[in-house]
Amino acid sequence: MPDFTDHLKPRYDGTATLQAERDASTINVRDLANHLLSRDGFLQAQDRVLKVLSNEKLFKKDQQLNLSRPERYHLGLARAKAIRRIGRTQGWGDKEYAMAEYLNDEMSPYFLHMSMFVTTVREQGSEEQQAYWMPQILNYDIIGCYAQTELGHGSNVRGLETTAKWDPVKKEFEIHSPYLTASKWWNGSMGRTATHAIVVAQLLLPKKGSKTDDDEYQSHGPQPFIVQIRDTKTHQPLDGIVVGDIGPKYGYASMDNGYMLFDHHRVAKSAMLSRYAEVSDETGALNRRGHPAVVYGSLTFVRGQIIMHARLILARAVTIAVRYCSIRRQFKDRDSTSPADEELKVLDYPTVQIRILPLLATTFALHYTGEMMYNLYHKTRQTIEKGDFGMLAELHSASSGLKSLCTMLAADGIETCRRAMGGHGFGGGSGLVGTNADYLSKPTVEGDNWMITQQVASYLIKKMTHAVANLDAPPKDPTDELFQFYLKNRAHRIPQTVAHDGEYDDQAIVDVFQWRAADLSYRAYHARVVEKKPWTKLMIQLHNLSRAYSEQILVTTFFNSFHETATSLSGPTPGVLKTCFRLYALFTLDAFASSFTLTNAVAPDSIYSLSDAILDLMTELRPHAVKLVDAWSIPDWLLDSALGRSDGKVYEELYDMAHRRNPLNRVTFNPDWRSDEIVLGSGDGGRHILAKL
Amino acid sequence: MAPPTPEWVKQLTPSGPQGHELLAAERASSDIPVDQLSTLLHTKEVLDRKQQILTILKSEPVFDKTQNYFAGRTERFETALARAKKLANLKVKHNWNLDEYRTAHDLISEPGPYGLHDSMFVITLGEQGTPEQQERFLTKAQKYEIIGCYAQTELGHGSNVRGLETTATWSPEDKTFIIHSPHLTASKWWIGSLGRTANHAVVMAQLIINGKSFGPHPFVVQIRDLKTHEPLENVHVGDIGPKFGYNTMDNGFLLFNKVKIPHVNMLARFSRVDPETNKFVRQGSPSLIYGTLTWVRSTIVMQAGSVLARGVTIATRYCAVRRQFQDRDAPASEKSENPVLNYTMVQIRLLPLLAATFALHFTGKAMMELYQENQKRMNAGNGNRDSSKRGAGPEETQSGSDILADLHASSCGLKALSSTIAAEGLEVCRRACGGHGYSSFSGIGPWYSDYLPTTTWEGDNYMLTQQVARYLLKSARSVINKEPPTNDTTTILTEFLSRSEVGCAFDIIGSDADLVSAFAWRTSFLTFEALKHRDQNKKPWNDLLVDFYRLSKAHSQYTVVKNFYNALQSPAVTSQIPASTLDVLRKLFRLFALNTLEQEGSEFYASGACSKHQISLARTNTVMKLLKEIRPHALRLVDSWAFDDWVLDSSLGRYDGKVYEDLFYRASVTNPLNGITVDPYPSSDVLFKKVEGIAARSKL
């Protein structure tokens, strides 16, 4: 409906503003984008899949935030099905499906089928089991999920309460939930969608030499079972199983996270995935083959993916914040004397820069570490398949610490960006409402960030203990090398200065991050191994150690990328990336200043000059900000943000969303408190509302 | 509604020690008299009032919360409007006064569509209307015969009122104002209660007389028809759409196409247009308005304590019930897992926040008392001095001699600090609950998203800090000019200056008073450093903003630490609780102060307020010892905040510890999604095979 507002324009032209920002920097966006995102043809796949999805009405994101929880699941399932059907007609491979999930940007009810379910069968099923299940899984004849965590137990698999008791007579397992807290809980795709589940349960076998009396059973730890949970025709739960959706969450509205309980439910012997362990028909004993630690293998893989995802999520938030803050104006400069001066762009305020620009730098820090992790995972996987588990400790340790740090940086970063945008950041037009809510689960899923950091710490204590005892043994990895260097030099350490009068010492930056990590490792080793302090008392210290160790990895890996960027990128880009490195490092150093000084990594007197150095670095980075976020190549369709549009039409879009696409404005309400009527003219006296409560 | 629960499921209980046993044991481990401490925090009168109103609310079906977490935007708004109406009816029926009405709102804990009518609309008419205008508008507003809102911020402009684009042009011919929106960015935006509810608005617009602008002023404008509730001609108004939180409120947009309003609609208590001469006339001082802002900010500080306390209550109770991992040092024979609250890693996140709830509470309370005392003094005639020479903002006044200025500056900084502590603290609490914290049934997530806008409204937290810095610089200049100290800020600055040559030696670990002094010292140090940058090195204002932000934070942290310390010394507090409880509160004080000091360690160290060794000692020994000593009292301390389960609406935070039973009940019984049976295969485009229960009644 046309009205007088159709011809109104914003006071400042957003498109021209962004163009001017882009003209002010000579960074070659296309080259940088290729440098960041060419692995596995990412950018080409993005173009291809985007074209398909953005033309389908079902994938329009407009109304998502207005929908209720049941409606969101409804939509989520419809889209998940559609992606599969489109994929078949378009001949998509894994790469395109993954891209479709990324662009669709909501948790698919098939997500666990495609990830943990298929991975677990592939990695832990015997060859026979794989031959039986894999075709059905890949053809979506069955839909699966992964049921590990329980109502009363999260990260600690040893504490699981669900049992799988071996019946030596019938050669079957009986799956049972002895307590309410044994209920499977949080398991994605299980609430309404899945027909099958991988159920992780405590394997109970009769004690040697005993008959089948109940109390003569012994637990052999958690094992995975593949269990049908719903009828393939009626989709109703099977007898002896209660399963459903756990209700609304902070985010993940489209996903049916579920609960599930078993009442002495019987499954065949073949249900236990038996690549690494099998119950013997004759003796009823557990035969293990291969390394039990591999159970953690798929968890490690998921963590690796989470880290790769973190950089793109953070890049998305930073893209929106940088673009909007280059357009938004607020207050004139206090020192301004001319009444003709315009209000300042908020990105020119150091108080805004200090929140956004270090995060922009962080996206690159995460990138280079993500690449390094990706390579490390593939290298380790190959050795596992050859039966060598040697690098698993290193990988598991690195992945858990980095997952913890990277997801925290991204989750906190999204929120920092959202707040840096003032009032509009709170609105649906920011594009960060859903992202924030969905992403916030990351710091707690797949191992709580605070809990899993213990794995890193205990690994480092072990390494340090070894280094102390074998000071001159040939180093097996960079950590050994660092610890030996530290032990040999700790007596005559000279604290460093990393920035002085506009000069930066990049090598020294790497050194102080490594030194701090080594020193904290040594302190933890000393407290635990030498002084024998109780573990729980040390947890905070150990958590800080994990963070310091992971930050050291980010800084070192970023530094190591200089060689490649200097040769493959041209113009100002390598220099700007170096500025990002310095900004990320010095910002982190400043934020944890006391940790760096107390470990003798940096000279205490040099701390005070950091804030000036950070201001200088931000000033250097500022003109390139818009082009740097452009290089992350996040399509407008995915950003789904009025504030972050690449064409700068912020206000036009906000208004259009509010005025023309908002269902609440199609209803006229009766605001008079004396009348029970809610919708004007409906005459229903409020009964409609009460029926829903 | 989900299918019926089978008998074998109903028989199940949680494994191990039961939640209610665990919480009972927690409560038995401390001797804090919860009722006494509650009374100290809230007063008996307030506690009784809450109880009475709660009984009324629980008996009304419209306030049932069961489906809150499931509903879509439009449903949430409809329900909120039904609740707002019911509340207005109850107010009449029970003859509630303003305090009682507000209590009812607090207990319901969701923003309502009458929110801005009840607050800013009525307040502005009362404060800025002449007696004639009050008669004309306020009386009707109080009876809800007109429903209003307060339209200040615009699409392109937030905190800076001078940048507003909406105009009110005086038309001398017919003695009217023409309200107009010249650009799209002039659209009023974010205005609460405007989207669907209000039929009037107080509109802030640039007054233009004869082509000349006289700055922003308030105008009362009717926007919707009183019968049909449709927008008036040339008024374009609607709801701005879904948000991070606050989805029960119809925040709106508003555009005008040359709308005429009569002369009487410009609120004219402080300035008006003379209809005869067409001249702009200023009368009286608007500095009173800053008094109101100061008051609003003080309530935000006090409220921040209680907002955070909700999250801390939920997380503390849940962490006492939730068990995870055996202690690494536990003997292998010991099967049971540890309550996570025993982990220092959980304690270091929750207990300093528990301490912060008390710190913020006592600070807010002290500020409100100071404000009231000052109002009394001003009303007695001492406050009018030189008021004619005052500029608009109180930081423009002679800072060294005016308590209001000190209070105003403190309130800006404290609003920023306390709402940031509360918002970030809630998220820390949510994450400390592990996976279940992410469920809506934790009760923390939705509460957090409704609270978040507080960090950007009433002045963006980052922007506000400039006002504090400006005030501190002025104060420092007056101290350098040897003017005698007249308030706390100038007192600590004078003290610092007199000792800056000699330095200080504070015993931050042994003496609470010294701990407060260390905070004062660091603030003073940063103030004079910033002054040096600005006055001697002539750095541009813009380059100093990050320094100013840090300075403001330092000053606010000092204010909180000082007020918490003072409260625990005052007979009003010490006489009401036993010595052992007072001792626990003092430990909370030390935990809050030392934990803050440790986090800001490099500033304390750089200022010379304490040594590297002291900071290291505080971190590794003192703070750890305090956590251990406070730990047994944690449950009773959160109990004393006295949140009813109905208010918390949280499975994890239940008073009786029945966490798992409640999570399971809500998921399996109240969850409409479980009434839906789907067809899961991608090959079929059928989505739902069967829909039962509540889900069938909704629009699916």
- Text of the CATH class of the largest domain in chain A: Mainly Alpha
What's the helix count of chain B? 24
Say which CATH homologous superfamily of the largest domain in chain B is assigned. Answer: Butyryl-CoA Dehydrogenase, subunit A, domain 3
CATH superfamily of the largest domain in chain A: Butyryl-CoA Dehydrogenase, subunit A, domain 3
Q: What is the strand tally of chain B?
A: 15
Greatest interface: A-B, 158 and 160 residues
Organism (chain A): Aaosphaeria arxii CBS 175.79
Protein name (chain A): Acyl-coenzyme A oxidase
InterPro entries (chain A): ACOX_C_alpha1, Acyl-CoA_ox_N, Acyl-CoA_Oxase/DH_mid-dom, Acyl-CoA_Oxase/DH_mid-dom_sf, Acyl-CoA_oxidase, Acyl-CoA_oxidase_C, AcylCo_DH-like_C, AcylCoA_DH/ox_N_sf
Domain Acyl-CoA oxidase/dehydrogenase middle (chain A): 145-263
Structural overview:
The complex is a heterodimer of chains A (693) and B (700). With 693 residues, chain A is α+β, with helices and mostly antiparallel strands. Chain A has four domains: 39-106, Butyryl-Coa Dehydrogenase, subunit A, domain 1; 115-289, Beta Barrel (Butyryl-CoA Dehydrogenase, subunit A, domain 2); 299-631, Butyryl-CoA Dehydrogenase, subunit A, domain 3 (Up-down Bundle), CATH 1.20.140.10; 662-693, no CATH class. In chain A, 50% of the residues lie in helices and 9% in strands. Chain A has helices spanning 14-23, 29-37, 42-53, 69-90, 94-104, 111-124, 127-138, 297-327, 350-385, 392-420, 433-439, 449-469, 478-489, 506-530, 535-560, 562-568, 573-591, 593-598, 610-621, 625-631, 636-639, 650-660, 687-692, and strands at 144-147, 163-167, 172-176, 184-187, 196-206, 217-228, 241-245, 258-262, 265-268, 277-279, 286-288, 499-500, 503-504. In chain A, strands 1, 2, 3, 5, 6 and 9 form a six-stranded mixed beta sheet that branches. Chain A has a three-stranded antiparallel beta sheet with strand order 4-8-7, with no helix packed on it. In chain A, helix 4 (69-90) packs antiparallel against helix 5 (94-104) and helix 8 (297-327) runs antiparallel to helix 20 (625-631). The two termini of chain A are 35 Å apart. The mean pLDDT of chain A is 88. Chain B is α+β, with helices and mostly antiparallel strands and 700 residues long. Chain B has two domains: 119-284, Beta Barrel (Butyryl-CoA Dehydrogenase, subunit A, domain 2); 289-380 and 392-639, Up-down Bundle (Butyryl-CoA Dehydrogenase, subunit A, domain 3). Helix content of chain B is 52%, strand content 10%. Chain B has 24 helices and 15 strands. In chain B, strand 10 (271-274) and strand 11 (279-282) form a beta hairpin. In chain B, helix 9 packs antiparallel against helix 10 (344-379), helix 11 crosses helix 16 (545-569) and helix 16 runs antiparallel to helix 18. The longest helix of chain B has 36 residues, at 344-379. The radius of gyration of chain B is 28 Å and the shape is globular. The two termini of chain B are 14 Å apart. The relative contact order of chain B is 0.11. Mean pLDDT of chain B is 88; it is low at 382-401. Chain B: Belongs to the acyl-CoA oxidase family. Chain B: It comes from Aaosphaeria arxii CBS 175.79. Chain B: Residues 290-473 form the Acyl-CoA oxidase C-alpha1 domain.
